[in-house]
Inverse folding.
């Protein structure tokens, strides 16, 4: 399957606009508690800013794709079966990881998930895979728990 550059930009732009609206209307109010404080200091402020930027950039991307519709020399993107399979396996591994976080602590779960993703995407050298899969989650864990004083699962 192949798709022209202009059509891909329009489709991605529409996707980002719909996702941004879904975030503003449903997900942010559902997931982040409303707090009576200054508007710029509220927990929902930054997610609303990011969602607004997502909507704006989605509109601009769709507009750019619409302008390119009849232009010559557009790139054609093709979707291979292997590329699609990589996306599906990655999403499946991430869903398993998120589900496992309910039962397994952050560090061991993240080390295994990162190692599995690295292995799946072709890193077979254990001298590189193991240190990266262990050190990065430890750095993130330390940064959140000690520096930001946030509790991870």
């Amino acid at each position: 399957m192949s798709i022209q550059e202009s059509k891909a930009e329009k489709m991605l732009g529409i996707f980002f606009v719909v996702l941004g609206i879904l975030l503003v209307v449903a997900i942010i109010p559902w997931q982040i508690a409303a707090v009576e404080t200054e508007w710029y200091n509220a927990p929902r402020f930054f997610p609303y800013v990011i969602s607004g930027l997502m909507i704006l950039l989605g509109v601009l991307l769709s507009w750019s794709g619409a302008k390119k519709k009849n232009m010559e020399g557009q790139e054609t993107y093709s979707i291979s079966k292997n590329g699609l399979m990589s996306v599906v396996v990655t999403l499946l591994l991430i869903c398993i990881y998120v589900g496992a976080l309910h039962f397994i602590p952050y560090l061991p779960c993240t080390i295994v998930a990162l190692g599995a993703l690295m292995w799946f995407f072709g890193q077979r050298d254990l001298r590189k895979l193991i240190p990266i899969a262990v050190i990065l989650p430890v750095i993130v864990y330390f940064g959140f728990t000690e520096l930001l004083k946030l509790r991870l699962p």
